[in-house]
Automatic annotation (TrEMBL):
Protein name, as recorded: FUSC family protein
Transmembrane stretches, start-end: 70-103, 139-159, 193-213, 241-259, 289-310, 316-337
Domain of life of the organism encoding this protein: Bacteria
Lineage, opening ranks: Bacteria, Pseudomonadati, Pseudomonadota, Gammaproteobacteria, Pseudomonadales
UniProt organism field: Stutzerimonas nitrititolerans
Region entry Disordered, spans: 347-368
InterPro entries for the chain: Memb_transporter_dom (IPR049453)
PROSITE patterns linked to this entry: PROKAR_LIPOPROTEIN
Length: 368
Protein backbone atom coordinates (compact mmCIF):
# COMPACT_ATOMS: atom_id res chain seq x y z
CA UNK A 1 0.00 0.00 0.00
CA UNK A 2 2.86 2.35 0.82
CA UNK A 3 4.46 1.68 -2.53
CA UNK A 4 1.27 2.38 -4.46
CA UNK A 5 0.71 5.60 -2.50
CA UNK A 6 4.19 6.81 -3.38
CA UNK A 7 3.64 5.97 -7.01
CA UNK A 8 0.36 7.88 -7.08
CA UNK A 9 1.87 11.02 -5.57
CA UNK A 10 5.26 10.71 -7.22
CA UNK A 11 6.80 11.29 -3.81
CA UNK A 12 10.57 11.21 -3.49
CA UNK A 13 12.39 10.87 -0.23
CA UNK A 14 15.07 13.47 0.40
CA UNK A 15 17.00 14.94 3.26
CA UNK A 16 15.31 17.86 5.03
CA UNK A 17 17.00 21.17 4.19
CA UNK A 18 17.26 22.56 7.73
CA UNK A 19 19.76 25.26 6.74
CA UNK A 20 17.46 26.70 4.08
CA UNK A 21 14.53 26.26 6.48
CA UNK A 22 16.20 28.40 9.17
CA UNK A 23 16.99 31.04 6.55
CA UNK A 24 13.31 31.04 5.52
CA UNK A 25 12.13 31.21 9.13
CA UNK A 26 14.41 34.09 10.11
CA UNK A 27 13.77 35.87 6.82
CA UNK A 28 9.99 35.80 7.26
CA UNK A 29 10.05 36.40 11.02
CA UNK A 30 11.50 39.92 10.91
CA UNK A 31 8.99 41.53 8.48
CA UNK A 32 6.10 39.61 10.03
CA UNK A 33 6.90 40.87 13.52
CA UNK A 34 7.48 44.40 12.27
CA UNK A 35 4.14 44.31 10.47
CA UNK A 36 2.42 42.91 13.57
CA UNK A 37 3.75 45.63 15.90
CA UNK A 38 3.53 48.56 13.47
CA UNK A 39 0.39 47.64 11.56
CA UNK A 40 1.90 48.93 8.31
CA UNK A 41 0.73 46.95 5.23
CA UNK A 42 4.09 47.33 3.50
CA UNK A 43 5.69 44.66 5.67
CA UNK A 44 3.33 42.15 4.09
CA UNK A 45 5.18 42.55 0.81
CA UNK A 46 8.54 42.24 2.52
CA UNK A 47 7.33 38.94 4.01
CA UNK A 48 6.14 37.66 0.64
CA UNK A 49 9.44 38.66 -0.95
CA UNK A 50 11.37 36.88 1.80
CA UNK A 51 9.41 33.68 1.31
CA UNK A 52 9.77 33.90 -2.46
CA UNK A 53 13.56 34.16 -2.14
CA UNK A 54 13.71 31.39 0.47
CA UNK A 55 12.37 28.84 -2.01
CA UNK A 56 15.88 28.59 -3.47
CA UNK A 57 18.49 26.54 -1.64
CA UNK A 58 21.61 28.71 -1.14
CA UNK A 59 23.84 25.65 -0.72
CA UNK A 60 23.18 24.43 -4.27
CA UNK A 61 25.35 25.46 -7.17
CA UNK A 62 22.63 27.52 -8.86
CA UNK A 63 20.92 28.46 -5.58
CA UNK A 64 22.11 32.06 -5.33
CA UNK A 65 21.45 32.79 -8.99
CA UNK A 66 17.96 31.34 -8.68
CA UNK A 67 17.37 33.39 -5.53
CA UNK A 68 18.23 36.64 -7.30
CA UNK A 69 16.01 35.68 -10.25
CA UNK A 70 13.11 34.93 -7.89
CA UNK A 71 13.55 38.29 -6.15
CA UNK A 72 13.83 40.43 -9.29
CA UNK A 73 11.10 38.74 -11.31
CA UNK A 74 8.81 38.35 -8.29
CA UNK A 75 9.08 42.07 -7.44
CA UNK A 76 8.24 42.99 -11.05
CA UNK A 77 5.29 40.57 -11.06
CA UNK A 78 3.84 41.90 -7.80
CA UNK A 79 4.22 45.52 -8.94
CA UNK A 80 2.66 44.80 -12.34
CA UNK A 81 -0.27 42.98 -10.78
CA UNK A 82 -0.95 45.86 -8.38
CA UNK A 83 -0.68 48.39 -11.21
CA UNK A 84 -3.06 46.49 -13.51
CA UNK A 85 -5.70 45.97 -10.82
CA UNK A 86 -7.73 49.00 -11.96
CA UNK A 87 -7.25 48.49 -15.72
CA UNK A 88 -9.44 45.69 -17.14
CA UNK A 89 -7.81 45.28 -20.54
CA UNK A 90 -4.30 45.55 -19.12
CA UNK A 91 -5.19 42.95 -16.52
CA UNK A 92 -6.59 40.68 -19.24
CA UNK A 93 -3.43 40.92 -21.33
CA UNK A 94 -1.10 40.60 -18.36
CA UNK A 95 -2.73 37.44 -17.02
CA UNK A 96 -2.82 35.97 -20.53
CA UNK A 97 0.91 36.67 -20.87
CA UNK A 98 1.68 35.05 -17.52
CA UNK A 99 -0.39 32.03 -18.47
CA UNK A 100 1.67 31.70 -21.65
CA UNK A 101 4.88 32.26 -19.68
CA UNK A 102 3.97 29.51 -17.21
CA UNK A 103 3.17 27.06 -20.00
CA UNK A 104 6.40 27.96 -21.80
CA UNK A 105 8.53 27.50 -18.69
CA UNK A 106 6.90 24.15 -17.92
CA UNK A 107 8.12 22.93 -21.30
CA UNK A 108 11.72 23.28 -20.08
CA UNK A 109 11.41 21.07 -17.03
CA UNK A 110 10.11 20.97 -13.48
CA UNK A 111 12.46 23.59 -12.02
CA UNK A 112 11.54 26.11 -14.71
CA UNK A 113 7.87 25.37 -14.04
CA UNK A 114 8.41 26.05 -10.34
CA UNK A 115 9.86 29.43 -11.26
CA UNK A 116 6.81 30.17 -13.42
CA UNK A 117 4.24 29.27 -10.77
CA UNK A 118 6.05 31.48 -8.25
CA UNK A 119 5.83 34.45 -10.60
CA UNK A 120 2.15 33.75 -11.27
CA UNK A 121 1.46 33.69 -7.52
CA UNK A 122 3.19 37.05 -7.07
CA UNK A 123 1.09 38.50 -9.89
CA UNK A 124 -2.13 37.22 -8.29
CA UNK A 125 -1.21 38.61 -4.88
CA UNK A 126 -0.35 41.98 -6.41
CA UNK A 127 -3.71 42.25 -8.16
CA UNK A 128 -5.74 40.91 -5.22
CA UNK A 129 -4.19 43.18 -2.60
CA UNK A 130 -5.21 46.31 -4.46
CA UNK A 131 -7.78 48.22 -2.44
CA UNK A 132 -7.35 46.06 0.68
CA UNK A 133 -5.20 48.62 2.51
CA UNK A 134 -4.27 52.29 2.08
CA UNK A 135 -1.12 51.47 0.15
CA UNK A 136 -1.46 52.35 -3.52
CA UNK A 137 2.06 52.59 -4.95
CA UNK A 138 3.21 49.75 -7.24
CA UNK A 139 6.83 50.94 -7.21
CA UNK A 140 6.92 50.91 -3.42
CA UNK A 141 5.44 47.40 -3.39
CA UNK A 142 8.15 46.17 -5.74
CA UNK A 143 10.87 47.81 -3.63
CA UNK A 144 9.54 46.34 -0.37
CA UNK A 145 9.28 42.93 -2.02
CA UNK A 146 12.91 43.20 -3.14
CA UNK A 147 14.06 44.36 0.32
CA UNK A 148 12.49 41.30 1.94
CA UNK A 149 14.20 39.07 -0.61
CA UNK A 150 17.57 40.80 -0.13
CA UNK A 151 17.28 40.25 3.62
CA UNK A 152 16.98 36.53 2.93
CA UNK A 153 19.91 36.77 0.50
CA UNK A 154 22.06 38.24 3.28
CA UNK A 155 21.14 35.32 5.53
CA UNK A 156 21.88 32.92 2.67
CA UNK A 157 25.40 34.34 2.26
CA UNK A 158 25.93 33.80 5.98
CA UNK A 159 24.78 30.18 5.64
CA UNK A 160 27.24 29.62 2.81
CA UNK A 161 29.99 31.12 4.95
CA UNK A 162 29.16 28.77 7.83
CA UNK A 163 29.54 25.82 5.47
CA UNK A 164 32.85 27.11 4.13
CA UNK A 165 31.55 27.66 0.60
CA UNK A 166 32.33 30.42 -1.86
CA UNK A 167 30.14 33.49 -1.46
CA UNK A 168 29.25 33.26 -5.17
CA UNK A 169 29.51 29.79 -6.71
CA UNK A 170 30.92 29.01 -10.13
CA UNK A 171 28.31 29.43 -12.83
CA UNK A 172 27.78 26.85 -15.61
CA UNK A 173 28.42 27.68 -19.23
CA UNK A 174 25.55 29.31 -21.04
CA UNK A 175 25.69 26.94 -24.01
CA UNK A 176 25.59 23.83 -21.82
CA UNK A 177 22.60 25.25 -19.97
CA UNK A 178 20.79 25.88 -23.26
CA UNK A 179 21.47 22.31 -24.39
CA UNK A 180 19.83 20.95 -21.24
CA UNK A 181 16.78 23.20 -21.72
CA UNK A 182 16.41 22.14 -25.36
CA UNK A 183 16.59 18.50 -24.31
CA UNK A 184 13.70 19.07 -21.91
CA UNK A 185 11.70 20.96 -24.55
CA UNK A 186 11.94 18.11 -27.07
CA UNK A 187 10.16 15.72 -24.73
CA UNK A 188 6.80 17.46 -25.22
CA UNK A 189 5.17 17.38 -28.70
CA UNK A 190 4.59 20.87 -30.03
CA UNK A 191 0.89 20.29 -30.82
CA UNK A 192 0.18 19.05 -27.33
CA UNK A 193 2.03 22.02 -25.86
CA UNK A 194 0.03 24.48 -27.98
CA UNK A 195 -3.27 23.20 -26.61
CA UNK A 196 -1.77 23.24 -23.13
CA UNK A 197 -0.63 26.85 -23.55
CA UNK A 198 -3.98 27.94 -25.02
CA UNK A 199 -5.78 26.46 -21.99
CA UNK A 200 -3.52 28.40 -19.63
CA UNK A 201 -3.94 31.63 -21.57
CA UNK A 202 -7.74 31.48 -21.64
CA UNK A 203 -8.18 30.44 -17.99
CA UNK A 204 -5.67 32.96 -16.62
CA UNK A 205 -7.00 35.83 -18.73
CA UNK A 206 -10.62 35.12 -17.75
CA UNK A 207 -9.69 34.86 -14.08
CA UNK A 208 -7.87 38.20 -14.08
CA UNK A 209 -10.70 39.86 -16.00
CA UNK A 210 -13.41 38.55 -13.66
CA UNK A 211 -11.58 39.86 -10.60
CA UNK A 212 -11.06 43.23 -12.26
CA UNK A 213 -14.56 43.77 -13.61
CA UNK A 214 -16.39 42.48 -10.54
CA UNK A 215 -14.03 44.32 -8.16
CA UNK A 216 -13.86 41.25 -5.94
CA UNK A 217 -12.21 41.77 -2.55
CA UNK A 218 -9.36 39.34 -1.87
CA UNK A 219 -9.43 38.45 -5.55
CA UNK A 220 -6.23 36.43 -5.32
CA UNK A 221 -8.28 33.56 -3.93
CA UNK A 222 -9.92 33.31 -7.37
CA UNK A 223 -6.82 33.71 -9.53
CA UNK A 224 -4.68 31.45 -7.34
CA UNK A 225 -7.41 28.80 -7.48
CA UNK A 226 -7.31 29.05 -11.29
CA UNK A 227 -3.54 28.60 -11.50
CA UNK A 228 -3.45 25.85 -8.88
CA UNK A 229 -6.27 23.86 -10.47
CA UNK A 230 -4.61 24.07 -13.89
CA UNK A 231 -1.51 22.33 -12.51
CA UNK A 232 -3.45 19.16 -11.64
CA UNK A 233 -3.45 17.68 -15.21
CA UNK A 234 -7.17 18.15 -15.84
CA UNK A 235 -7.06 16.99 -19.44
CA UNK A 236 -6.63 13.27 -18.77
CA UNK A 237 -10.22 12.35 -17.86
CA UNK A 238 -13.36 13.97 -16.50
CA UNK A 239 -13.30 11.92 -13.29
CA UNK A 240 -9.67 12.84 -12.57
CA UNK A 241 -10.32 16.50 -13.35
CA UNK A 242 -13.32 16.57 -11.01
CA UNK A 243 -11.36 14.87 -8.21
CA UNK A 244 -8.46 17.29 -8.56
CA UNK A 245 -10.80 20.30 -8.58
CA UNK A 246 -12.63 19.09 -5.49
CA UNK A 247 -9.28 18.49 -3.79
CA UNK A 248 -8.14 22.06 -4.47
CA UNK A 249 -11.49 23.43 -3.30
CA UNK A 250 -11.35 21.29 -0.16
CA UNK A 251 -7.85 22.54 0.68
CA UNK A 252 -9.04 26.13 0.26
CA UNK A 253 -12.08 25.47 2.48
CA UNK A 254 -9.89 23.98 5.24
CA UNK A 255 -7.55 26.96 5.04
CA UNK A 256 -10.43 29.42 5.24
CA UNK A 257 -11.94 27.56 8.20
CA UNK A 258 -8.62 27.65 10.05
CA UNK A 259 -8.21 31.38 9.45
CA UNK A 260 -11.79 32.11 10.48
CA UNK A 261 -11.41 30.04 13.65
CA UNK A 262 -8.17 31.72 14.72
CA UNK A 263 -8.86 35.30 13.45
CA UNK A 264 -6.06 36.69 15.64
CA UNK A 265 -2.92 38.13 13.99
CA UNK A 266 -0.50 37.36 16.91
CA UNK A 267 -1.71 33.77 17.05
CA UNK A 268 -1.50 33.49 13.27
CA UNK A 269 2.11 34.70 13.36
CA UNK A 270 2.98 32.17 16.09
CA UNK A 271 1.55 29.35 13.97
CA UNK A 272 2.87 30.63 10.65
CA UNK A 273 6.57 30.84 11.51
CA UNK A 274 7.01 27.15 12.46
CA UNK A 275 4.89 26.23 9.45
CA UNK A 276 7.20 28.19 7.13
CA UNK A 277 10.25 26.43 8.60
CA UNK A 278 8.73 22.97 8.25
CA UNK A 279 7.41 23.72 4.77
CA UNK A 280 10.85 24.81 3.57
CA UNK A 281 12.63 21.94 5.32
CA UNK A 282 10.36 19.36 3.68
CA UNK A 283 9.81 21.13 0.36
CA UNK A 284 8.13 18.80 -2.12
CA UNK A 285 10.03 17.60 -5.19
CA UNK A 286 6.92 16.54 -7.11
CA UNK A 287 5.61 19.45 -9.16
CA UNK A 288 1.92 19.13 -8.22
CA UNK A 289 2.65 18.83 -4.50
CA UNK A 290 5.09 21.75 -4.74
CA UNK A 291 2.38 23.93 -6.28
CA UNK A 292 -0.12 23.09 -3.53
CA UNK A 293 2.45 23.57 -0.77
CA UNK A 294 3.73 26.89 -2.13
CA UNK A 295 0.27 28.29 -2.84
CA UNK A 296 -1.02 27.47 0.65
CA UNK A 297 2.03 29.07 2.28
CA UNK A 298 1.72 32.22 0.19
CA UNK A 299 -1.98 32.48 1.05
CA UNK A 300 -1.29 32.06 4.75
CA UNK A 301 1.44 34.71 4.66
CA UNK A 302 -0.84 37.11 2.78
CA UNK A 303 -3.69 36.52 5.27
CA UNK A 304 -1.66 36.44 8.49
CA UNK A 305 -2.23 40.10 9.34
CA UNK A 306 -5.74 40.30 7.82
CA UNK A 307 -8.45 41.96 9.90
CA UNK A 308 -11.50 40.72 7.92
CA UNK A 309 -11.56 37.01 8.76
CA UNK A 310 -15.14 37.51 9.93
CA UNK A 311 -16.06 37.38 6.20
CA UNK A 312 -14.96 33.87 5.19
CA UNK A 313 -17.70 33.51 2.58
CA UNK A 314 -15.97 36.04 0.30
CA UNK A 315 -12.83 33.90 0.14
CA UNK A 316 -14.81 30.68 -0.33
CA UNK A 317 -16.88 32.15 -3.17
CA UNK A 318 -13.76 33.43 -4.92
CA UNK A 319 -12.04 30.05 -4.61
CA UNK A 320 -15.13 28.24 -5.92
CA UNK A 321 -15.39 30.55 -8.93
CA UNK A 322 -11.69 30.05 -9.69
CA UNK A 323 -11.86 26.26 -9.52
CA UNK A 324 -15.01 26.19 -11.65
CA UNK A 325 -13.47 28.51 -14.22
CA UNK A 326 -10.30 26.45 -14.56
CA UNK A 327 -12.28 23.20 -14.78
CA UNK A 328 -14.66 24.61 -17.42
CA UNK A 329 -11.86 25.93 -19.64
CA UNK A 330 -9.89 22.68 -19.36
CA UNK A 331 -12.91 20.53 -20.26
CA UNK A 332 -13.79 22.86 -23.14
CA UNK A 333 -10.29 22.61 -24.61
CA UNK A 334 -10.29 18.83 -24.13
CA UNK A 335 -13.59 18.58 -26.03
CA UNK A 336 -12.29 20.76 -28.84
CA UNK A 337 -9.14 18.66 -29.10
CA UNK A 338 -11.22 15.48 -29.43
CA UNK A 339 -13.38 17.06 -32.10
CA UNK A 340 -10.28 18.07 -34.04
CA UNK A 341 -8.82 14.58 -33.79
CA UNK A 342 -11.97 12.79 -35.01
CA UNK A 343 -11.74 13.77 -38.73
CA UNK A 344 -8.04 12.90 -38.83
CA UNK A 345 -8.70 9.50 -37.27
CA UNK A 346 -11.49 8.86 -39.78
CA UNK A 347 -9.16 9.74 -42.64
CA UNK A 348 -6.50 7.35 -41.39
CA UNK A 349 -9.04 4.54 -41.01
CA UNK A 350 -10.42 5.24 -44.50
CA UNK A 351 -7.00 5.30 -46.14
CA UNK A 352 -5.80 2.14 -44.39
CA UNK A 353 -8.03 -0.33 -46.43
CA UNK A 354 -7.14 1.45 -49.67
CA UNK A 355 -3.44 1.04 -49.02
CA UNK A 356 -3.97 -2.61 -48.13
CA UNK A 357 -5.86 -3.22 -51.41
CA UNK A 358 -3.14 -1.51 -53.38
CA UNK A 359 -0.54 -3.71 -51.77
CA UNK A 360 -2.57 -6.83 -52.64
CA UNK A 361 -2.86 -5.69 -56.28
CA UNK A 362 0.86 -5.13 -56.43
CA UNK A 363 1.47 -8.59 -55.07
CA UNK A 364 -0.99 -10.28 -57.48
CA UNK A 365 -0.13 -8.34 -60.65
CA UNK A 366 3.04 -10.33 -61.56
CA UNK A 367 1.01 -13.56 -61.67
CA UNK A 368 -1.39 -12.14 -64.20
Amino acid sequence: MKRSFRQILGWQRGRPAWGAAMVAGLGCALPLLLGLFSGHPGFLWATVGAFQAAKANPLHRLGMLRMLLLIALGACSAGLGFWAATLPMVSLGLFAFYGLLLAWLQRYGTEAGKLGIGLAICLCLGQGQSGVADFNNPQAIAVLFALGGLWVTLLAFGLRGLHGLRMWPYMPRFMSLMKVLRRHARRTPIRQWRMHALTYILAAALGGLVVNLAQLPRGYWLTLAVFTTLQMNLQRSFARALQASLGVLGAAAVLIYMGHSLADPPLMVMIMLPLVILSRAFQAHHYGLFVLQTTLCFLLLAETLAQDWYLPEIRLINATIGVGLALSVSLLMTGLLRLIRRPSSRKTTATAPATNDARKDDEISPLR
